[in-house]
Specification:
By secondary structure, the chain is of the alpha/beta class. The protein contains 17 helices and 27 strands. The radius of gyration is 27 Å and the shape is globular.
C-alpha cells in the first residue's frame, strides 16, 4: 500500500485507537495504531505516513514532547492532535511545531475524517473544481441503494458515488445545478445538492449517507441534462467518503422490480434500461415464472409489458390482483389503445404508453417507491415564546448528562423540529427535562450549562451559505466565558434556514425529521472520557 494511504494513531486509550482504525479502514486507509507513546514515536520516525493522529496527553510522554522529537526526523508529516480540551499553551506549542490541527474528544467520524482529509491525497480546497474520473472508479458489490429518490453506490476504494433520479419533465425549467463543495461534511437525509428551476423552488437532492465530499461532478454545471439522460452514470453528483457506513446503510434500500414480458428481446432491452436506473430486475416470461418473485416483500412494482401478452394481458392482470393485491402494477402500454379500457377495469397503479422512450419511467418508479406522506398534524396551541423550547436535558444510556440549548423561538414545543426531537427522545424511554420560554444564549450562560453537564449542544440558525436544512457541526471552543474558561464540552449545531426571519419553520417535514434524527444522535451517543479526564485542565 502506498504511503499516502497509511495512517498512524497514537493514543493511550485503546478505544480511541480502535475507533479510528474502524473509521479510516472503511475510508480506504491502512491504519497502524498503538497505545504506547514510545512505540508510536519509533513507528513515526521509521515509516512514512500520510498523517499521524496523536493524543496530546499520554503517560510518560505528552503529545507536544512527541512532536518535538518527531520534527527532527519528520519535519513535514501532518500531525493532528486529539484532545479533550484544547488549551492556549498547548495550542501555541502545537502551532510552533507545525501541527496540522486538532480534533476535540469525543469527536464524530465526520470531524476526524475531515481533519485528515485536508492533509492527505492532495485534498482540494473547498472551492477547487474537482471531478472524479469515471474510468478508475470501480463499484463494490452492494449495487445501488436508495434513500428516497437519491442513490448511492459504494466503490472498492472506500468512496461512494451519489446522485438522484430526476424527472425529465422538469428539464425545460432547469436553470442550473448547485453542487456541494469539496471538503464539506454532508449528512444522511439532509441536502446534498439542488436543481435550480425557473419560477419554482429548487428541487433538493438529499444525501443518502453522511460523510466528507471528496469530489463533485463539475460537468453537470455545463450539461445538466445528464441528470435525467444518464442519472446513475455521467449524471452522478458527488463522491463522498462515508463516515457512518455501518449505522446508515440499513436506512437505504435496494429497489427491486418484477418485469413481466413474454418477448425475450424486448424484455432484455427493458431490463437493461431499468438496471441502468439502479434497479434490481427479475424477469418473468409467463405465469409459472412469476411465483417466486411475487413472494419478495421488498419488490416495489410489477411492470407488465402489454404488447407481449396481447389479448391475454387483462386476464393476467386480474390474476395478479387476486394473488398479490398489495403489489403495484404498472402497465407498459403501446400506441394501440384497443385494450386500455379492459386493463383499466382492473386495479393497476399506472398505465404508461411507451414510458422508456421519453424517460417517463423515472417518474413512475419514483411514485412506486415513494413512502406515503404522514398525515398532517394540526395544533390549536398559541405560538408564543412561552410555547418554544429553551432547553432539553437528558441522561443518556451512557450515563452522561447532556443538555440541548436552543436559541429563542427556534424549537416550537408542539410541532416541527422541537416536537420531533422530544418525541424521539421519549420513544427511546429517556426522561426528558424541558424548559420553555425565552433564554438568551451567551458565553456566560453556556459556561454555566457546561459546568453542570457532561455535554452541551447549542442549536442555532444562521446563514452559512448552504442549502436550507443543511447542518454544520462544530466542537466550539469559541464559547469562552468572561473568566476565559475553555468550553471543550460544548458542541454547536448550525442549521441553514430557508430565510433568516423564518428560522426553521420553513423546512419541510422530511428535512425536519432528518434533522431531528441527527440532533437526537448527538444527544444520545455521547460517551464521557474515562473517569478523571473529562475536565482535565491540562488539555487531555
Amino acid at each position: 500500500m502506498s504511503d499516502d494511504q497509511r495512517l498512524l494513531v497514537v493514543d493511550d486509550e485503546e478505544a480511541i485507537c480502535e475507533g479510528c482504525r474502524r473509521i479510516f479502514t472503511r475510508l480506504g486507509f491502512e491504519v497502524e495504531k498503538t497505545s504506547d507513546a514510545q512505540v508510536g514515536l519509533h513507528l513515526a520516525e521509521e515509516n512514512e505516513y500520510a498523517a499521524i493522529l496523536l493524543d496530546i496527553k499520554m503517560p510518560n510522554m505528552t503529545g507536544i514532547e512527541f512532536l518535538e522529537q518527531l520534527r527532527t526526523k519528520r519535519p513535514r508529516v501532518p500531525v493532528i492532535f486529539m484532545t479533550g480540551y484544547p488549551s492556549v499553551p498547548n495550542t501555541i506549542a502545537a502551532i510552533r511545531l507545525g501541527a496540522a490541527g486538532y480534533v476535540t474528544k469525543p469527536f464524530t467520524p465526520e470531524e476526524v475524517a475531515a481533519a485528515v482529509q485536508k492533509h492527505v491525497r492532495g485534498a482540494a480546497e473547498p472551492n477547487d473544481e474537482t471531478s472524479l474520473p469515471d474510468d478508475p472508479w470501480t463499484p463494490g458489490a452492494e449495487g445501488y441503494l436508495f434513500l428516497r429518490d437519491s442513490w448511492v453506490q459504494y466503490g472498492q476504494d472506500g468512496t461512494a458515488r451519489t446522485g438522484a433520479l430526476t424527472p425529465r419533465t422538469q428539464a425545460a425549467s432547469i436553470q442550473g445545478v448547485r453542487l456541494p463543495k469539496v471538503g464539506e461534511t454532508v449528512y444522511q437525509g439532509l441536502p446534498l445538492a439542488a436543481i435550480v428551476r425557473d419560477g419554482a423552488p429548487p428541487q433538493i437532492v438529499v444525501s443518502p449517507l453522511s460523510g466528507v465530499v471528496e469530489a463533485v461532478n463539475q460537468q453537470l454545471l455545463k450539461e445538466p441534462s445528464a441528470l435525467w439522460e444518464d442519472p446513475t452514470g455521467s449524471g452522478w453528483i458527488a463522491a463522498i467518503r462515508p463516515t457512518r457506513y455501518d449505522e446508515e446503510t440499513e436506512q437505504c434500500r435496494r429497489r427491486r422490480v418484477i418485469l413481466v414480458n413474454a418477448d425475450a428481446n424486448t424484455a432484455a432491452a427493458q431490463q437493461a434500461k431499468l438496471t441502468a436506473l439502479g434497479h434490481h430486475v427479475r424477469v418473468a416470461t409467463n405465469w409459472d415464472e412469476l411465483g417466486p418473485p411475487l413472494q419478495d416483500d421488498g419488490c416495489g412494482a410489477v411492470l407488465v409489458d402489454a404488447a407481449s401478452f396481447g389479448q391475454e394481458g387483462p386476464a393476467l392482470i386480474e390474476r395478479l390482483n387476486a394473488v398479490a393485491p398489495e403489489k403495484k402494477i404498472v402497465l407498459l402500454g403501446t400506441g394501440d389503445a384497443s385494450l386500455e379500457a379492459a386493463y383499466r377495469s382492473h386495479r393497476i397503479f399506472y398505465y404508461a404508453v411507451e414510458p422508456f422512450a421519453d424517460k417517463e419511467i423515472i417518474e413512475i418508479l419514483q411514485a412506486a417507491f415513494r413512502s406515503p406522506a404522514p398525515p398532517a398534524k394540526h395544533t390549536d396551541a398559541r405560538k408564543t415564546s412561552e410555547d418554544h423550547i429553551a432547553t432539553l436535558k437528558i441522561v443518556n444510556r451512557n450515563g452522561s448528562k447532556v443538555r440541548l440549548v436552543a436559541e429563542t423561538g427556534l424549537l416550537p414545543g408542539q410541532e416541527g423540529l422541537g416536537m420531533l426531537i422530544r418525541r424521539r427522545l421519549l420513544d427511546r424511554q429517556l426522561p426528558v427535562e424541558t424548559t420553555f420560554g425565552e433564554r438568551v444564549v451567551t458565553p456566560n450562560s453556556i459556561a454555566s450549562d457546561a459546568s453542570a453537564c457532561d455535554r452541551v449542544v447549542v442549536l442555532m440558525a444562521r446563514d452559512i451559505d448552504r442549502l436550507p436544512g443543511s447542518l454544520l457541526r462544530d466542537v466550539c471552543a469559541a464559547y469562552v466565558s468572561a473568566g476565559g474558561m475553555d468550553l471543550g464540552n460544548v458542541t454547536t449545531l448550525v442549521i441553514q434556514p430557508t430565510r433568516q426571519e423564518e428560522g426553521l419553520t420553513g423546512l419541510n417535514e422530511e428535512t425536519s425529521a432528518a434533522l431531528a434524527d441527527h440532533i437526537v444522535h448527538e444527544l444520545t451517543s455521547y460517551r464521557p472520557l474515562p473517569t478523571g479526564r473529562n475536565h482535565n485542565a491540562n488539555g487531555k
